[in-house]
Design brief:
- This protein is mainly beta.
- The protein contains five helices and 43 strands.
- The protein has a single domain, classed as Maltoporin, Chain A, CATH 2.40.170.20.
- Strand 5 and strand 6 form a beta hairpin.
- The chain is globular and about 75 Å long.
- The two termini are 21 Å apart.
Amino acid sequence: MQRTFQSNVLQPKAILIAILAAYAMPQFAVAANKAEVLETQAIEVVGTTPLPSIGTPINQVPSNVQTGSAKDISQQESLDLSEFLDNNLGSVNTANSVSNPYQADVSFRGFTASPLLGTPQGLSVYLDGVRVNEAFGDVVNWDLIPANAIANINLIPGSNPLFGLNTLGGALAVHTKSGSDFPGVKVTAYGGSWARRAFEFEAGGVDKEKNLDYFVAGNIFKENGWRDHSQSDVKQIFGKVGWQNDTSDLDLSVALADTALEGTQAVPLSMYNKPAKAYTYPDSIGNQLAMIALKGSHFLTDDKLVASNVYYRKNRTNGFNSNAEDLGPGDSSNISTLTDQDGFGGALQLSLLGDLAGHKNQFTVGASVDYGRTDFTSDSRDATVVGRETVTDDPTAAPTAFVRLKTRNDYYGLYATDTFSYTDKLHLTLSGRYNVAKIKLSGTSHDDALVPTDSDLSGDHTYTRFNPAIGLNYNPSKTLGFYGGYNEGMRAATPVELSCADENRPCSLPNAFAADPHLNKVVAKTFEGGVRGKLAENLSWNMGLYNTENTDDIQFIASNSTGFGYFKNVGDTRRRGIEMGLNGKFDRLSLAANYGFVDATYQSDFVVGSPANSNADVNGQIQVTKGNRIPGIARQTLKLRMAYDVTPAWNVGTNLVFSAGQYARGDENNQDVNGKVPGYGVMHFDTHYSVNENWKLFAKVNNVFDNKYATFGVLGDNIFNGLASEQFRSPAAPRAAWVGLTYEFGRAKTASAAVDSDN
């Protein structure tokens, strides 16, 4: 089913074979989509620039890149990308503060990609070269990325400047499937615990006569949730049409999503024996996404490839937040928000693949523009807690507080990277990117409780910086390689942070903003080095060290009023650690292990409000000192994946996830009497059975031993216990099981499709 076209012109496939063979790469890495090798499941080539093109052999990348494929995601029946990352990749831990499966905070090396406004973001996420960190707060909405549309992922660590803004700790590049590499039809239905019911489909194919291929994937997911008031309703569809001739490739993709997610807060330890109960409710968020993207590549000559993309992305988010402050009449509030975000832009890059001074060389230069336009409104009305529900006193009354804010993000980048091969074993990589970020805000906020009641949110902020990188790879043999490098990255303060940066007018997140002082950009500088190799043909390993120093890091500083605070540059922070991995296949047994040690600490002294901290002074403040650990980051993680083919038709697999304890938010000084949120170990199980060529049965069990543990902690006052200060925790889901049925046809046994369908 692969596309083959006859021509007297040297085809891109032949070009890529020659290039990759020159780098001692296996030929299976060559994709049917000839200039877009990253659309397959091959993991020997990774994308090292935002815009996908031919990629770079993994043994020439000076960092510990981690990968995942469509087969891995499908075999584990991963609900979404965040779940797959948490169960498999090293130095990753997740925190689910709102107990909704689609709203996890993903932390990698102590840097976060989160769907929650106000969380300091340190990871950039790309979908087929389009940056999907939202314009307003750089958040990442995992519910908008359909898992069954993913061909492969690359988690590229460090402050890699090529991926632009927000790449402090790493970049996650997601590449979607194409019809040429994932042909046929696959339909799945499953259900089980918490009234979860889901329907998934995908279809792909090729029209050889017209040089076209197509792929479409869709999901419908509903669940009541394991905790009260934690329902989910998710609808996703993704489609792609590709055209290709001898020297060009063009892909048009469309993504649509409509999601409605409810969540509930962490519960105080005094309520922890009833983890399914909501602390207060309602809290909800809904996303409506429409995105269209066009990307293409063209060989100008045999060794010159130009690639580009353009996109438009619209996301409309409706939110509702209960803000329960006390049990008295009218002492609480309900806040409704509407965030209307438009993103559009594109990138253009040129790759030169020929020799330089008689040595193999790959040079890429590119430019990108990303524009964001946001219209944010919020209205707050007095409410009273009735039972556990926060009920608006008078829905028709004028809001006691409101925000009317418009923001403009203009991001520009000019980047280049060159990999020069002194020999077949020694490769030098030089990279750099110049970033320009312009953020403009206009609007006002009003709060009856503040003096003055109105605040001007208008502001104009510009951030610029050149970020360099250098790396070296030495591969003395095909079974051993050394790498080392240094890189720098930056992130600009987001509109959310800039709109809430006045300590004299603290705001409530993610709903109310108060003022617009300037915040400095955050700069990250990373050293990394390691070794990797093979113990046998099917057994690979890696070990590495890294150190990332942040200057002018931004922290949300809590005020003495619960739920309020402001953003501030707090000085330096550091993340350093060790990573080790092992991956192999022994006859019927597949094995993967990833260990991560992350030492994340503050490197500057500052004062923060935390009245619920047992060590707080009379003003409700705590002193954070150099060396205190950053809350919410597990110091150690271990991921084990084992899968065994009992028979050719029956496969069983298990994921073991271990995570060390973490400090709760509000315990930045690490001295609260409640101590850490304890660590945990949890086991998940999956099995697949092929009834025949078309029909397959599967089952999945999460938390097999029904362990009781928490992934998130925060200090606060319990309104149901006389405002007593307590540690609140978000309990993890108990044991759950789902069973499903898959029907497939037309899944031709190409290199990719066979792997994907072989459960």
